[in-house]
Batch of 2 targets.
Target 1
Amino acid sequence: MKVGRVTLSDRGGGGACMETGAGRRFEAIFKSHFSEALEFDRRLIPDERGEIERTLRELCDTQCTLIVTTGGTGPASARCDAGSHGAVIGKGVAAFLAR
């Protein structure tokens, strides 16, 4: 299964630092829960709405079965993460959190 893993980081996306361990920890968790082989398409991008939307769409176009994001500021209304995801998914993040 192809999994898109996006880490949002203003510093990391700009090349100022390496990715933290959160993305690698997600991969380890997924590998322990899925019996099939996983292929990860890893992206480290700035926490900017346009970049997030573009990256999520690219991963959809490359047939990722699952796309996971980590980093950024989370679904806070003052930041771009929730709006960026909603613009691509077609639903607001609150629709997923409410379930």
Note: Helices lie at 10-13, 22-33, 49-61, 81-89, 93-97.
Target 2
Amino acid sequence: MRPATPVAIPVVANLRSACGFPSDFRTVCSGPNLTVGHDGAENATPGTYNVVDVAGGGRGPGFALILAPGTYTFCSLRLGRSAALLASGPVTINIASRP
């Protein structure tokens, strides 16, 4: 058996440029809050949202946030037990950090 060949670290020297990531994900935390209550389902359109809270934990198949195709920025995202975050097409989700 041959000895293992060591791998040079990092495997990708500049992940951001190799994958085409933007140089900065920062954004202003603003926009409306988006809340889905127990046994509820809401549809969202692309944009920036302040607090996103999907309660979950209810009885039945509800408690889902359904995202239309596009780009979303959430300043805060909380998914409760058994909550679902679904997409009806390709989406990009950015989670902004608060200062």
Note: The CA atoms of residues 4 and 71 lie 43 Å apart.
